[in-house]
Specification:
It contains 15 helices and no strands. The protein is mostly helical. The chain has 2 domains: 136 residues; 103 residues, Tetratricopeptide repeat domain (Serine Threonine Protein Phosphatase 5, Tetratricopeptide repeat, Alpha Horseshoe), CATH 1.25.40. Helix 3 packs parallel to helix 5 and helix 5 runs antiparallel to helix 6. The radius of gyration is 21 Å and the shape is elongated.
Length: 272
């Protein structure tokens, strides 16, 4: 039994990879309301550009280059925004991050929410690119911008990415502090609680891990990622029956092929 527990404990848990970013954030709608007379056409162009970037990215690379030649002010920010999103769709994460930074820097000072959003996107892209030393200062600036904009929900997302960056750097203490901040800023974010549970479990803080995963489960019941981690924490805490319950729920529920495969593997390890 000990070898089985050890094998399951070695699992990395939920993959904290990049989460899909809403390409057209709500800040743009707010911007439209503030600048109706001059920005409707520009925002429509951005919306069209972002939609087409998902379907015909190579062509949009050429069009965004042309757009940037004549753009200025908020339009320049949006042209860089679309170019970054296009590059992300081409998996050019380093270039995408640079475009998002350029977009952020072109945003007028009054639109601090949009600036914060673009900074968060830039930091996230650097993180996916593995450029940790570039990601951290960009995320730190996004954290400041989100705080200045009183944008707690985005601040929570930024803290999650800061935590992921610290984990990749091997800095557990700062990762824990970032996740603590994420839970305070976005207490209804099941992802903040889930990743807190994963980190606590990996650092042998099982009581904390159990508390965090229970809250994640309350916020997002029947989420297979949460159930996978809850089962791991349960078995490491000596509750095999609870672990089976979580993993069996995953394999008997429709969909979630990837999580089903992992859950099957965990249950097979128990049988062995």
């Amino acid at each position: 039994m000990f070898s089985t527990i050890l094998a399951i404990a070695m699992q990395v848990g939920p993959n904290p990879s990049i989460q899909p970013v809403d390409p057209i954030p709500p800040e743009l709608r707010e911007l439209r309301e503030r600048q109706k007379n001059q920005s409707v056409e520009v925002l429509d162009r951005l919306s069209d550009c972002l939609e087409r970037a998902e379907k015909e990215a190579p062509a949009m690379m050429m069009q965004t280059a042309e757009w940037l030649q004549t753009a200025s002010g908020i339009e320049k920010a949006q042209a860089h925004h679309c170019r970054g999103f296009t590059q992300a769709n081409l998996s050019q994460w380093d270039a995408a991050a640079q475009s998002f930074v350029a977009a952020r820097d072109a945003v007028p000072a009054a639109d601090v929410k949009y600036r914060a959003r673009l900074g968060a996107m830039a930091g996230n892209a650097y993180l996916v690119a593995g450029e940790l030393l570039l990601a951290l200062p960009v995320l730190d600036q996004a954290k400041t911008d989100a705080a200045n904009a009183d944008f707690a929900a985005l601040g929570g997302e930024v803290e999650i990415d800061r935590a992921r960056t610290f984990v990749a750097m091997g800095d557990t203490d700062n990762a824990e502090q970032a996740l603590l901040a994420a839970r305070k800023l976005a207490p209804l974010s099941s992802r903040a609680w889930l990743l807190s549970a994963v980190l606590a479990r990996r650092t042998d803080k099982l009581d904390d891990a159990a508390t965090f995963i229970a809250q994640a489960d309350r916020l997002d019941a029947d989420n297979p990622e949460i159930e996978l981690e809850a089962g791991v924490i349960a078995i490491l805490s000596g509750d095999e029956a609870k672990a089976r319950e979580y993993w069996t729920a995953i394999v008997t529920r429709p969909g979630n092929a990837q999580q089903k495969s992992v859950a099957h593997g965990y249950l097979a390890q128990l049988e062995e």
